[in-house]
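Blinded run. Sample ID left blank on purpose so nobody reads anything into the name before looking at the predicted structure. Input follows.
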Amino acid sequence: MHRITLIPGDGIGPEVASAVVRIIGASGAQIEWEEHIAGQQALDKYGKTLPDELIESIRRNQVGLKGPITTPVGKGFTSVNVGLRKALDLYANLRPIRALPNIPCRNPDLNIVIVRENTESLYSGIEHEVVPGVIESLKIITEKASTMIARFAFEFAKSEGRKKITCTHKANIMKMSDGLFIRSVHAVSEGYPEIAYDTQIIDAACMNLVMKPENFDVLVLPNLYGDIVSDLCAGLVGGLGVVGAANLGHDIGVFEAVHGSAPDIAGQGIANPIGQIWCAAMMLEFLGDAPDADTQRFRSAAAAIMKAIEHVCANGPRTGDMGGKAKTVEMGKAIAEAI
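Blinded prediction complete.
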């Protein structure tokens, strides 16, 4: 039995989290859930959006599964996601982008991976008012963080048999900050001669991803660019509802769907749970790599979940974003039964 911190989140979070708990149970993985709240709920109860108990729970368990949490736009508290990544040094965001059966996609064999630096750049959140009407926001790029994410990307590519890494940047304009990023990645690339390496300016990369995404394999990007590009790539395979993600540190992993809390449809039971379920499969793969884990059981469960997702996409019910009318519970039930 492995204990995992569960953060259901808000909005549609509890709905998709409930489907995930059911599916992991069906997979045969032995999981004990330790549930915590964050965001507005935690602010109301504890006076802070990231309670100490939550951070301590993830540090103790080393694994967390997180639902979406609403971040106020242009006001209110800062992003819980960003705070969680900083508090736990979850420096790498990993987002696999893969076409699923029977979901409209111009490239049915598309299979690329976004590796995003997760702790700095403009997401450092260092802002101040210079004078009324003028706001300054600082972009922080360090050699240490840039080198760490580059090494993560190349090690990931090597372990997965990937052949090429593309580093995206805007060093033609931000010559010092993005310049440091690409110099750091290039330095790491020299230690992996078996992996092809190139760079693209971010705007050109976005155009090329839309026109010929099959030309990419693994992309490594600074924080803000990675956030934007990963959502762009999700659009290539059916939208945010069908993509998962992992936030990884040296010993800790927190897994979360890439979509938001969608308060406009919360409580209606129509959210697509596939993205969150994919996160669960990634989480079980992560557990399968732990030295004290029941490796085979976790990896088998992860493979069974992904196979079930593909089966249901090809043959089963479909939620509204996929062109169908299925409810969240129906999708979860169908995937659990497919397992």
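Unblinding after everyone has recorded impressions. Residues 295-315 form the longest helix (21 residues).
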